[in-house]
Amino acid sequence: MTIAEAPARLAAAADASLRWYPGGPYDLARTLGPLLRGNSDPSFSVQGSAIWHAFTTGEGPATVRLTPAGSSELEPRVDVQAWGPGSAAAIGSVPRLLGAEDDWQGFDEPAFHATLPRMVQDARRRSLALRLPSSGRILDQLVPIILEQKVTVIEARRAYRYLLHRYGSHAPQAGSLAPAGLLLAPTAARWLQVPSWEWHRAGVGPQRSATVMRALRSAVALERLAALPALEAAAKMQTIPGIGIWTAAEVVQRTHGCPDSISVGDYHLAAYVGAALTGQRTDDAGMLRLLAPWQGHRQRVVRMIQSSGFRKPTFGPRMTIQDHRRH
Fold this sequence. Notes:
Blueprint: E1 2-4, H1 8-12, E2 16-21, H2 28-32, E3 44-47, E4 50-57, E5 60-69, E6 77-83, H3 87-97, H4 105-108, H5 110-114, H6 118-126, H7 138-147, H8 153-167, E7 169-170, E8 183-184, H9 188-191, H10 196-201, H11 206-217, H12 219-224, H13 230-237, H14 245-255, H15 269-278, H16 284-291, H17 298-307
Antiparallel strand pairs: 1-2, 2-6, 3-4, 4-5, 5-6, 7-8
Helix pairs in contact: 6-17, 7-11, 7-14, 13-14, 15-16
């Protein structure tokens, strides 16, 4: 993988820019997909093949535009421009964000590959362009994932969107190209200013809001976890009351590109994996037994099952959407 300066015309339009070469097939939208909290995430905007993202770095806020270029098979590349005080730091973080450190070599090694279920083998052949992203920003992932605890995705995303519109800030100006309404997620200090009634209006119950506030009071220590190995970071994260194995796994999958962390405790995942691999529903313990032969790559196996198009049969009642704002 190599990095070069973006073309002069594009570079001139931004405060910082680069051209990143993944060195093989690459799919920008599928790679960054897990970082978006739905299609209405105010910190992202998808415009055709380009993805805009606003976030805060250690040097300040930045607006970043990422655009795939070249053939997806023959020397693909991603052109990147950044604006704002944090543009240089943002550009420096982009290769990891795009999956530059995600190494599938062990997964694709013939002896290991031969042990995989046919469904996973076939999905991998169709998904060579997929990478696991590493955002490196713990709080930006942790807060929305805490909001997803014990509720539906629809509820959690609605709450996150409400809170960002109330307490986020405008992304740095990026000229006429920039989408309207792009927002920066609140900083830790700003999140701590959210009063109890606003959590209530957002539909966030007191247990989840209290967990967010506890985490935010440890914001500096939590952000340091980005420099640790994923499993160590996940373990340290769980020392904060309210952050369990599911939350920590969901975070390091996105902040570290962890290829092995499994979302134990997920409402649907164990039954889904069991149905895919055996035709039978299972629980968390059963899921872990099924995935044990692929230790070190268990999250890759899950991603490939999800990429296969498999849908498990649905039985019984669905989780209902709760509206805590009326209570």
